[in-house]
Amino acid sequence: MQSQSVSEITLAYIGGGSLNWAQVLMADLVHDRTVAGEIRLFDLNLEAAQRNAAIGNRLSEAHGLSIRYTASETIASALTGVDFVVVSILPGSFDDMAKDLELPEAEGIIQAVGDTVGPGGLVRAMRAIPAMAEIAEAIRKYAPKAYVCNLTNPMSVLTGALYAAFPDIRAWGECHEVTKLRHIIAWLANRAEGAIRYGFRDVQVNVLGINHFTWVDHAFVGGRDWLPDYLNFAAENREKGWRAKPLDPNDEFQRYFEDVNRVKFDLASRFGIAAAAGDRHLAEFLPASWYLNHASEWGFGLTPVDWRRRDQAKRREDARLAETANEVPPLRAVSEEALVGQIRALTRGETLVVNANMPNVGQMQGFAPGTVVETNVLFSGHGVRPIHAGRLPAAVEALVKPHAERQNAVLQAVLAGDGVTLEGLFLSDPLVAPLGQDRAAKLFRAMVAATAARLPETLRRLSA
What is the average pLDDT across 418-446? Predict the structure, then answer.
């Protein structure tokens, strides 16, 4: 039976044809069972949104939920009067993303992901910021009081773009990377207890930094701070790394998305504070000679776009077969995402403290006001409020702050169509700088030319 205490909401999902994140939300809502109402799926590919609406309605009916999914033909019809907005878009296509990786690789620049920093992250931001600003303008017009969750990378600049276009927006950027560290802390606590008593959701960490370059200086579970234990554990396993369960060499997902925590452990041992994100993301913020140029030795993989294409094709075919057979798709396991918990907190008067990305209003010392930083945020019936996190150690701040300042400048330069500044920011990235000015500038123009069709007119001329 469905819970008698149910929140009735309307939610617009921008990018609602997604074969991954939209369906993750559908499954999490089934597992949670405390949300009812309407979810409007909007996508530039209307057919994909219609397919997902059919999948969502079959899931809701099969599991006794009062949630109805509809496909919206316009963003206006999706947004008008909604309580929540989720934004999960692909900036460009996988072909664009392939160029983001292949062109730098031809110059010797390795990227594990290429969606946040480095040459790939900057060019992806050029594609995505104008689109995100347009979405924010539509939210201002049709749903100005809605709560807005951004799931799209590059997380920091795109969450910043929402606020730049609509300063009064009630938005945050949602990322699960810190969960990786919380799992390790829970494992350490369970080992000490001699029993499985804690899951990652029981671990409260104090988060500081920017998206994908996050750090933790306290980690509480079971009534005490486990950070000293973690630092000792990291030092003990620094040379070989560690996982609770070994990687399966035949599992492509694990090969390309998981790691053995060697980068995290090495950074913790060097700086006395826990690096929190996955190794493949952390490595991209640092000089390539540290980790990226020796990725296999450090126990993490480079995520190939070809794998993303094959995975997308498989998901599309599975969805097509389920739709053709009019079948209820298998229910995914509950995810580690925080979105449904955030909706519960905001609509039911519950409280949830979890990491999120928001403009700095004092929660992070040492970073300029308005910089999108990742700290803990309180979600409750009173709204979304960042929690004071403190300040990073000086040596770590010296690594993180230049990236934050570069992201601020990238956002402003894209919105202004300022190509001179964008080229300079491209050249100053730690992964690009070793090329030298001339080669780096040539690479920048080549990357812009490769994705010019996805750029606004003010930025297309940069490839000349």
Answer: 96
